[in-house]
């Protein structure tokens, strides 16, 4: 049994324990961790679909980029139609001197890899132009009539419907078109049903109204048409043509450039570079003399200058695209042999820093007159065209500079002389073309 002395000795320690162990202060409860969450309703989407997003955060406000700006915590948001993989960033406001909190979300967006019919539309060698409002303008071509078509049609992807909105001044095929900064479309060159091949036309894609806007000094087909950064339009080459002309939007007139190209070119490509100059590459040549593979047009001087030669073989009827990094890709195409055309299965990439072309891993199918368009995932889709053994191809493939070509869904029917037009939601509109026996292919398709 404890004695009184033992109990008295224990009292001080008991008192200390009751006070928290030697006079210490109980720490305040821990601050709750700040909330920061950016989430989506699904883990994967298909091109053309929308994503539902939810933002949650602690703080007075935040920004969600790209495209949303200021947001509130708890807010539910919806993206537009997804054209490809999307990286989102939520950044919460921070006090001066503090590091802002961030959350990121990657949306996985893929193609179903299928073609869906969207109506009947028969044409070949027509012009198809994506408009700023998301619709597509389709001009002329061979529509199976006695003469070339003068039709102006407009395709609405939301309604999946074609609408005839006007008529050109003459039937026309193999023409080229660009949309101007004011929304109108300039159409030039090609083969016409009436003897007005030099006539150029301005089209209002909203109303279908047409007005004549100047005449070329020379009739042309197999040429290129490029909208320059200053609003002028460059028309270069064409069969047996080395000359080039500039259209001035202030006067509506054409005039020759200060100098011609190095030689005549047809079936070449003309790609606007980020510095405002135009890369002219390849093309068939009729005249004699040495072949210059590529040259640059400078809008400031109005002159063409040849690039250093690399011993590259002639190439024509290829597809050319400026990649997001500013380099230019030349895909597939053809070269002339003594007795035939050879379809190509390779690609070239032009580097504006080195001013040189480099060969890239080959395509899965040698083809010329193919149509190509960028996919939202960093690859390009090559569709249809023809090869040495087949007048029209069904095969399609996805290709990127750092990846091997991959076969994609085949067209329901072979096509050549068709068009492939990117839509704002990432899908691609396939129009017209001719089949194995030269017949018009009557079905319009969406690749999605």
UniProtKB/TrEMBL annotation:
The keyword Signal applies. Keywords: Signal. It comes from Inhella proteolytica. SUPFAM superfamilies: Galactose oxidase, central domain (SSF50965). PANTHER family: KELCH-LIKE PROTEIN 33, LD33804P. InterPro entries: Gal_Oxase/kelch_b-propeller, Gal_Oxidase_central_sf, Kelch-typ_b-propeller, Kelch_1, TAT_signal. This is Kelch motif protein. Residues 1-17 form the signal peptide.
């Amino acid at each position: 049994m404890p004695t009184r002395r033992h109990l008295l000795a224990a009292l001080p320690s008991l008192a200390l324990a009751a006070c928290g162990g030697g006079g210490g202060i109980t720490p305040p409860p821990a601050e709750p961790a700040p909330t920061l969450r950016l989430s989506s309703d699904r883990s994967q989407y298909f091109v053309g679909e929308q994503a539902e997003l939810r933002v949650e955060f602690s703080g007075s406000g935040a920004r969600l980029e790209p495209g949303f700006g200021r947001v509130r915590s708890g807010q539910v948001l919806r993206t537009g139609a997804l054209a490809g993989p999307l990286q989102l960033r939520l950044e919460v406001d921070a006090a001066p001197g503090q590091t802002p909190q961030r959350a990121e979300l990657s949306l996985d967006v893929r193609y179903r890899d299928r073609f869906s019919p969207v109506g009947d539309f028969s044409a070949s060698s027509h012009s198809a132009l994506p408009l700023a409002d998301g619709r597509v303008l389709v001009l002329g071509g061979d529509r199976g009539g006695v003469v070339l078509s003068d039709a102006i049609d407009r395709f609405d992807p939301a309604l999946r419907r074609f609408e005839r909105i006007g008529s050109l001044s003459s039937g026309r095929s193999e023409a080229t078109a660009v949309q101007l900064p004011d929304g109108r479309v300039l159409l030039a060159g090609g083969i016409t049903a009436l003897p007005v091949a030099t006539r150029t036309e301005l089209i209002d894609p909203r109303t279908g109204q047409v007005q004549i806007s100047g005449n070329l000094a020379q009739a042309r087909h197999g040429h290129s048409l490029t909208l320059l950064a200053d609003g002028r339009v460059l028309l270069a080459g064409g069969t047996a043509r080395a000359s080039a002309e500039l259209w001035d939007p202030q006067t509506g007139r054409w005039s020759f450039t200060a100098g011609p190209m190095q030689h005549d070119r047809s079936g070449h490509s003309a790609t606007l570079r980020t510095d405002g100059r135009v890369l002219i590459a390849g093309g068939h040549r009729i005249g004699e003399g040495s072949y210059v593979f590529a040259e640059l047009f400078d809008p400031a001087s109005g002159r063409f200058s040849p690039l250093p030669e690399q011993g590259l073989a002639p190439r024509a009827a290829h597809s050319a695209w400026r990649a997001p990094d500013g380099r230019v890709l030349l895909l597939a195409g053809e070269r002339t042999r003594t007795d035939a055309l050879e379809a190509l299965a390779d690609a070239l990439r032009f580097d504006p820093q080195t001013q040189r072309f480099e060969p890239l891993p080959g395509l899965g199918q040698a083809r010329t007159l193919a149509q190509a368009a960028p996919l939202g995932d960093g690859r390009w889709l090559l569709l249809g065209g023809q090869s040495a053994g087949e007048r029209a191809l069904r095969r399609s493939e996805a290709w990127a500079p750092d990846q091997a070509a991959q076969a994609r869904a085949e067209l329901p029917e072979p096509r050549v002389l068709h068009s492939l037009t990117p839509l704002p939601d990432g899908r691609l509109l396939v129009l017209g073309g001719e089949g194995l026996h030269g017949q018009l292919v009557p079905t319009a398709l969406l690749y999605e």
